[in-house]
Amino acid sequence: MRKQNSKIRTNFISESGTYLQNKDYFAFVEFDKYAIYVIADGIDEDKDLTSSKIAIKKVISEFSEKQSFSKRYLNNILKKTSEELKKASIDRPLKASLTVVVSNYSKFRYATIGNTRLYLIRDGFIKYQSKDQSLSQMYLDEEKIPKDKAQKHEERNNLYCYLGQKSRLTPYISRKYKLEESDTIVLCTRGMWENLSEGEILDALDEVKDPIEANDNLEELILVKNMDEFENYTIATIFVDKTYTNPKLKKLIKKILIITIILLLIIGTFAYFAYKKHKEKLKNIEDMNYYKQSALKYIEEDNYVRGKEEFNSALNLAKKLRNQEERDYIDKRVKLIEIILDANEEFEEEKYKDSLEKYMKVKKESFYLDNIALDYVNNRLDLINKHIEVLDLIKRGENQFLLDNLYESEIEFIKARDLAREIYFISAKEEAIDKLDKIYEKKKDKDKKQEEEELKQEEELKKEMEEELKNNIKLQESATKAHQDANKLYNERKYEDSLIHYKMAQVLYEELGMKDMQDIVEQKMKLIEKLIKNNFDVKEGY
Q1: Do 199 and 267 belong to one domain?
Q2: Would you say residue 529 lies in a domain?
Q3: pLDDT attached to residue 64
Q4: How far apart are CA 283 and CA 21, in angstroms?
Q5: Please, is 440 exposed, middle or buried when counting C-beta atoms within 10 Å of its C-beta (0-12, 13-18, 19+)?
Q6: CB distance 159 to 133 below 8 Å
Q7: Distance CA 354, CA 80 (A)
Q8: pLDDT > 90: what percent of the chain?
Q9: Residue 536 has what pLDDT?
Q10: Mean pLDDT in residue range 288-311
Q11: Which pLDDT belongs to residue 371?
Q12: Which structural domain, as residue segments, surrounds residue 507?
């Protein structure tokens, strides 16, 4: 019934251009409920098999078995067609570009793979136009090349999707478009679109009466260019003279209008009461949001007492509205604030470890609550750690004081005093100052005793030095005498006796630290030992 109550005229031409073999193909079938129009362009180099013909036969065959209008259905047909080309390949891979149009005589949908094209002309303008799956189309979409350059761009036939490819197939499948009377659909291969601009296409179709005339005009525009070389061209023109209209549509619309009026009357009866209730609900929502924002503002100002009060007001309204999501949102934040207030109270009572545990809990839970109060908690944690550090410094200072390590103790108490002053830890600061006073008092006593001890040691050292000086004078005198006696004995050629006295002088010089004299005596002793050994006489006067 759809086909009988509509009127669509179709005509096509297909020529080889300046090539010996025409690799294009077109076919269409109009069933009672659906019509299918398919155009294909063989893009392989196989001379025995026509990939475009194999592809179109497969599409028509699949559509004949089961007619549908869905995207999934068309996608499956194209995948099966691509597999068919792969199976038919013998010496070299078969490849094809293809565009298929499916219509129910009221609407149409098209699918395209490669660079065959579709144009829908309406009221003298191109209403819709398919896009190629080529590199030049990508450049055009990205505005890397102007539209008037795309027809002759060197990458116009560099396809990233085509039938017969090994990789995953990704055809473009359009949405459904409504057909209108006097619409013209043009399907074509690259032999046409490479050589005719959109303006030329519109001129050729202007005021034509049938698709035969339209095709003749388009072909004439190609041939009149007198090109030395141009591709196979196939042009299929579809004239939509009348679309299918459901005869029961008017009754259906009237029935829908009556039902709609009745429903509107029923709805209107409850509208006033619903409006009042809705208005009250909106007011409660507005108030709840106000209290929430107010609470968050107080929290930003670190006023958690008022923040809790505002959140509680918002919570009551959320319960009234039965808004479980808002109740959970607010309740979690109220509980978090309560932990903060407890931690603050324990901090004021100097229960730092208990307070620290609560602040750590707040920090952990705050991560899941938009980091609420996170800066405040981090500051409090830092402050607690500094308080604990002050107490630890005082403790270490006391331990060093008990060990009488006054210098180390003083350092610890000074650190404690300075840090306590920085964080306004008054009691700890005063304690550290008291401890320092005790250290200074003890150091003063200790310094006095040390001074007395040093004076005593100085006197003793002075006596020792005087005694040592006396001893050194005696030793020097003894050394000089021993040296003189040795020289005398040497001059008297009493070498063995002189050697004994030189050794005595050497020992004394060594004790006095007189290295030069030691060396002189050493040389003399070596000479005497040599004389004794060889029993030589030496001249007097060394």
Answers
A1: no
A2: yes
A3: 93
A4: 78
A5: exposed
A6: yes
A7: 72
A8: 34
A9: 53
A10: 86
A11: 83
A12: 471-534
